[in-house]
Structures are given as C-alpha cells and as structure tokens.
Amino acid sequence: MTDWLGLPALAAAHGGQIDDMIGWVHVFMLILFVGWGGFFTYCLVRFRRSRHPVANYTGVTSPASTYTEIGVVVVEAILLFGFAIPLWAARVDGMPPASEALVVQVTGEQFAWNVHYGGPDGVFGRTDIKLLDLQSNPLGLDRSDPAAQDDVTTLNQLYLPVNKPIIVRLRSKDVIHSFGVPELRVKQDAIPGLTIPIWFVPTVTTEEMRTRTGNSEFQYEIACAQLCGLGHFRMRGFVTVQSADEFQRWLEEQIKEQSAPDPFR
Ligand SMILES: [Cu+2]
User: How far, in Å, from the CA of 187 to the mean position of ligand 1?
Assistant: First the structure.
C-alpha cells in the first residue's frame, strides 16, 4: 500500500504500521501543500500590483482562510492523536517480558557499536570501568564474575534470530548516538547515563533478504543516526538475522571462543 513511497524493504513485524503512518503523513501533507499553494497563488493574483496600486490594508474579508486554518488544525490533530500517539503507545506498552525475548545490550561509543549478550543464563556479567580497555575489553566486562562466563561481546556485529522478539537495551559511553536500522523500522537515540529499551521482531533473515533484493552482498546496517563527532560517518554496525538454529550455533561458538582463558593476560 505504501510502495509509492520507495521505503527500504520491510523486515520487522511492526513495520507495516509505521509505513502506514508515513503514508498517511505524506497524503495529508500533500493536501496541505496543495491547499496552501492554492491559497498563496490566489493571493498573488487577487492582490496583484496592477489591481491594487495602493496597498490594501483590509485583505481578504471572507472567512475562508479562518476555515482553512481550522481545517489544518483538525488534520494535524488527527495525525497526532489518531495515528502518532496510539502507534507510539502500542510500541511502548507492548514490550514483551524479557523471558520471552532475546535481550541484547548495545552500547554506542565514538565510533562503534558494542554488542553484549547475556548468554544462556540471560544474566549480564558485571562490568567495571577499571577493567575497560578500548582494544581488548571495550565494555569493561569482568570475566571473573560467574554470570559473565557465558557472556558474548562483539564489535559492530549484532546477530539476531528471526521471528523472535528482540529487546535492545541501548546505552552510550560518551555522547548521544542513535541506533537506526531502516529495514527494521527502528530508530532510537542512545543517551549517556540512560538505558533505553526498544523492541522489534525481525521477520526476514539476511539470506532471504539477499534473494529478495537480488543483492548477494546485502547486509542490514546499523547506521548511527545522530551526528556524534568527526568519525560519525564510519559508525556503522551490521545486523545478521538468522534462523533460530543458526543463531544458537553462532552463540555457542562465541561462548566457547570468548570464555576460553586468554594466555596473554
Ligand atoms: Cu554515533
């Protein structure tokens, strides 16, 4: 229904509602554009200089412009109260319980995305600023904490299972970043000092999307959508959506690799 907008391919369960909303905003804005454009043109002709060599201080006396303005207010109220607020409320109130979802912590920094999985126990290991090392441990994860044994961290790589609710807990280490994945129809600022949860259900795997778009190198991209400094342009991460089995295999491999004692430490 919203094909005419040329939006990025849709790959999230809630995305249809977002697209409908974007469609309606465009339709209403088109009506406003034509309306205001017509009124402007009418005024240009009606009050042209050859007809009014002396300025007309009265202007239009008919109540038409008042009605038009009331109409505009009504349309904008419909957009706000009829579409935008209910949609936002549904997104915020409908957050699934953590037990039914995959919870991932994504921490923005200049200029990368740090991804943290709690592992099979679902508990995120302790982090400590004293352990933080930009190269080897960008999240300051304390591997000696029992809850951290099965934790997995990655840099700029977010792996997700398809058709499962995902809760991303967004955080930032330094400045305001914004987590935006156009195909998943999510975009949320990451604000230092706050943990902001967002949720979505990815419905199309990366593999399926490659077939669908005919682009064998297609990747879901996390684009930082907030100008966050000089390296903002290169702050991109990638989302790989896989089948539940593939995702499980990937997670287990990572746990094995990352929990192994590091001989160099
Ligand atoms: Cu950024």
Answer: 12
Cis amide prior to 83 (ω within 30 degrees)? no
Nearest residue to 92 via CA among 199, 242, 183, 204: 199
Task: Report how far residue 129's alpha carbon sits from residue 127's, in angstroms, rounded to the nearest whole number.
Answer: 7
Strands 220-224 and 236-242: antiparallel
CA of 192 to the centre of ligand 1 (A): 12
pLDDT tens, position by position, 115-144: 999 988 888 988 888 888 888 888 888 888
Q: Rounded CA gap, 243 and 241, in Å?
A: 7
Q: Determine the distance separating the centroid of ligand 1 and the alpha carbon of 113, expressed in angstroms.
A: 8
Cα 236 to averaged position of ligand 1 atoms, centre (Å): 8
What gap in Å lies between CA 131 and CA 139, rounded to an integer? 8
233-245: pLDDT as tens digits: 999 999 999 999 9
Backbone angles phi, psi at 128, to 5 degrees: -140, 130
- Largest Cα separation within the chain, whole Å, is 90
Q: How far apart are CA 158 and CA 143, in angstroms?
A: 21
pLDDT at res. 227: 95
Q: 170 near 195, Cβ under 8 Å?
A: yes
> How many Å lie between the centroid of ligand 1 and the Cα of residue 190?
9
193 pLDDT higher than 90: yes
